[in-house]
Amino acid sequence: MNLSIFVIVPLLMLLGLWLARNDKQVRGVMVAGASVLLGLSIYLVFAFLEARETMPADQAPMLFTYCVPWFEPLHINYSLGVDGISVVMILLTSIIVFTGTFASWQMEPMKKEYFLWFTLLSIGVYGFFISIDMFTMFMFYEVALIPMYLLIGVWGSGAKEYSAMKLTLMLMGGSALLVIGILGIFFYSGAQTFEILDIAHHTNGAHAIPESVQNVFFPLLFIGFGILGALFPFHTWSPDGHASAPTAVSMLHAGVLMKLGGYGCFRIAMFLLPAATHGFWIKVFLVLTTISIVYGALSACVQTDLKYINAYSSVSHCGMVLFALCMMTETAATGAILQMLSHGLMTALFFAVIGMIYHQAGTRDVRYLGGLMKIIPFLSVGYAVAGLANLGLPGFSGFVAEMTIFVGAFQNADMFHRVCTIIACTSIVVTAVYILRCVGKILYQKVPNPKLEKLHDATWDERIAVAGLIACVAGLGMFPLWAEEVIMDAVGPIFSVIM
User: Fold this and answer.
1) For labelling, which of 175, 280, 289, 434 has a CA lying 20 to 30 Å from the CA of 226?
2) What is this enzyme's EC (predicted)?
3) pTM passes above 0.90
């Protein structure tokens, strides 16, 4: 399978959107393109599973590889390939793009321009997950970040200009650290290209990067990617960005874009600098991620804006991804990728329902919302499902991911790791507090707000988005083994290098 198709299809969507002359044509282009991408991602999963059966991971860590020299003087190649982690991330991206298209069905104003930038954002995300050349990966990373400024600054709500600028400055600061780290790895490794597997071969051979040098570049890369993954104390851009972003952008941002942070930490920082993962810095980041988990959950408890509640919840759950990686066990790392997949689905569902309620009610303040289960039962059930998945109820995706993480974390027998794990586990209780309180308040407790009586339940386009995400959250929770096996198949070879 030629992986370039995941970049070509969005490029054709951009062309189609540019040629579209009315809203009907714009919607047609988006639905057609998003449907094709979803179909291709599902086909990729089956093609990957079939190919992996005949070719074990230790023989070919990456499948469907493709390489074309891009800029030979600097050894830059357009190199593509996927393993199990990439495959599930591409599937997640396609689901969010598809459901986000229907969640933005009524987007006004400048629908055409909005979808142009939304599609460009998706190109960056797809390109990042299919790239195995560090420079190409970084280029797509930047493509994914740039549209966020306009999508929030133009189509957002609240203090949108402030939020857009804060997000852009924070993430660009992280990008500066990534440039230093990537170039440092390339020049010190002695590799002939920026390809990850080529560099990994050099950094684990006779000419491995000295540990002292790895200890310099490792924190730069981990923080650079960690900023996007809402690593404490660099998380402050996230709640403001989520709260101001339009619905589909919040879905893609929290559901997929933040996952680039954990993916980059694992694929580049830890995989290419294995000696540094056993040193001082990994313990520092383990403490910071533990703080992220608890701080995000506690902060969500005191918020009154539905989007801020979910945004701080995302800080906590994305912190759990980095926390699991820092635990340095295969089980925990598998749980980290499952958490990326699970959180992407359930937070997209959260933001979709919140956006639909806000579009009608004109408020996201929990103090002015109540009795919604009777007024808009479909959207209320969607919100309840997202909340139950978020707090880790068995049968939903959150339970599978969190239990895998904590089981893997407890495999470390020393006191330091056990204390961090126990502290992180307290977030489960705190999450239950703010989720159940919020669900009970806005769904069942009546408030004197006559505007709520005029609300209507989800339209057909909104039902497609919400029902699709509910099916995915429940499906992953009840049938997680296929995803876990695909992910473990990719985590094993990486850990054979790290450990």
Assistant:
1) 434
2) 1.6.5.-
3) yes
C-alpha 131/C-alpha 264 separation (Å) is: 11
* Full domain range(s) for residue 76: 5-498
pLDDT in tens, 165-201: 888 888 888 889 999 999 888 888 777 788 888 887 7
CA atoms within 13 A on the CB side of 445: 12
For residue 26, is pLDDT > 80? yes
Structure tokens, 222: 């981990």
| Calpha distance 170→152 (Å, rounded) | 15
DSSP reduced 3-state for 240: helix
| DSSP, residue by residue, 105-165 | TT--S-HHHHHHHHHHHHHHHHHHHHB-BHHHHHHHHHHHHHHHHHHHHHH--SSHHHHHH
Q: In angstroms, what is the C-alpha Rg of the chain?
A: 22
pLDDT above 60: residue 484 = yes
Structure tokens at 382: 């969607």
Is 27:105 a contact under the CB 8 Å cutoff? Answer: yes
When divided into structural domains, the chain yields a total of 1
- Residues 248, 104: contact at Cβ < 8 Å? yes
Taking each helix axis from N to C end, the angle separating 84-103 and 23-54, rounded to the nearest 10 degrees, works out to 160
DSSP characters over 387-420: HHHHTT-TTSHHHHHHHHHHHHHTT--SHHHHHH
